[in-house]
Description:
By secondary structure, the chain is an alpha+beta fold. The chain folds into 2 domains: 3-34 and 164-191, no CATH class; 39-153, EIF_2_alpha (Alpha-Beta Plaits). 52% of the residues lie in helices and 12% in strands. The protein contains 9 helices and 4 strands, in the order H-H-E-H-H-E-E-H-E-H-H-H-H. It has a 4-stranded antiparallel β-sheet, covered by helices on one side.
Amino acid sequence: MTSADLYRALWRRKLLIGLLTAGCVGVTLFVSLSQTPVYEAETLIRIQQRIDDSSQAFESLEASQRLAETYAEIIETGALADRVERLARGAPGVTVSQEALSARPVEDLELLTISARNSDPRLAGLVANAVPDALRNFIRETGTLRDSIVTVAPATTPTSPSSPNLPLNLALALLLGLVVNAAIALLVELLADRLPDVEELEDSLGLPVLATVPALDFPRSPRRPLSHRLLGGRADRDAEVGPPEGSRVG
């Protein structure tokens, strides 16, 4: 089967492909709108160590990068969740779970990005800004006096949800729907019991097609009632034949 045959087969099944793809997009839209939106706020902090002289600057930078990775793991495990919840207790309805907090170090830098997720955008920003203070308390409690946390960019209230991402979901549903439904249409085309087109028939048999019979649509005559057909049929025939010879019509 050539590429031209594939294009013709897809064109013949364009209605099937369109309907199935529209169904995929509709289901994705319904599922996305039925989900609870989740907002994500981010805080950027810098982790640095105090140094006594300039010769320790390079070693301090390497140590700060390792500390960023360490503190990211601590935040991921949920060890700071209780501290963050206590610091944000002034806002009603604040609950911090392990899944609500995440952190990732910036590559080759002593920076750490902290993310907080919540169904309320205001609470998401509040929790994200409470994490640096909770991390400072954790450092003081562990007796690590040389480590310091500096907030570089505090979190702001997010204006749009991070999930579900409706435009991305619809785009993926459209793309995957077209690909999968095109494959289904080709499978239906291969399994369909039909005569090929003129070009396909000539290529298969190696002979020219001399003539084709188009599909004819004959108009149907109006159907008469059954009583008229049973009782009035003979009268209609008599009317068509006329009176017998020799009879007088007065």
